[in-house]
Specification:
InterPro entries: DUF421, UPF0702_alpha/beta_dom_sf. Pfam families: DUF421. The protein is of the alpha+beta class. It has 2 domains: 104 residues, no CATH class; 54 residues, CRO Repressor (2-Layer Sandwich). Helices cover 57% and strands 10% of the residues. Strand 3 and strand 4 form a beta hairpin. The protein is elongated and about 75 Å long. It starts with a helix and ends with a helix. The relative contact order is 0.11.
């Protein structure tokens, strides 16, 4: 019965290592992972920003360790989570205040198609095949490559397309609404 209600409050809240060491460890892991993820091809990231992805992954790890008592104190997990928040906010703030720094945080758009011509070296950089590109273009209403004025791989992994003339897309239920109105 003693095991159910006996809590060593000192162990729960007193950090198991120095706060400075926890901050340095959290900072190094965050910045190392940020740098690795920043230089991966964009298509590997998807729609989540690099810093958002890092925050989620590192939060989960820090919280899991604090909850499962891999740390001897909850304070260790709180310090690591606070360090992650600090770096995430700081990098976003720096990117907002200094446009040159933002270019480091988010890669510039990569041109994949210019005036109907595929930019093969940029596609190779982003690991996109011509079939994948054409599939994405078709999903955006483009039937032929020569209809594309510009296509860019954006920093979030999506491909934006600018056509020579506006593409009109007729949705299936639009015809029904038009016939109902007449």
């Amino acid at each position: 019965m003693d095991l159910l209600f006996n809590v060593d409050w000192y162990k729960v809240f007193t950090p198991s290592m120095s706060i400075a060491e926890l901050f340095v460890r959290g900072s190094l892991v965050y910045l190392m992972l940020f740098a690795i993820l920043r230089f991966l091809p964009n298509r590997q990231i998807g729609t989540v920003g690099i810093s958002d992805l890092l925050v989620v992954v590192l939060f989960a790890e820090a919280a899991q360790n604090a909850m499962a008592s891999n740390y001897t104190a909850i304070t260790d997990g709180v310090i690591l989570v606070s360090t992650i928040i600090l770096w995430s906010y700081s990098l976003n703030w720096l990117g907002y205040k200094f446009p040159r720094f933002q270019r480091f945080l988010s890669p510039p758009p990569t041109p994949l198609v210019i005036n109907g011509r595929i930019v093969r070296d940029k596609m190779a950089e982003q690991l996109i095949t011509q079939d994948e590109l054409m599939s994405i273009l078709r999903k955006q209403g483009v039937q032929k490559l020569n209809e594309v004025k510009l296509a860019f791989m954006e920093s979030d992994g999506h491909i934006s397309v600018i056509t020579h003339s506006p593409v009109s897309v007729i949705l299936p239920d639009t015809k029904e609404r038009e016939s109902d109105a007449s």
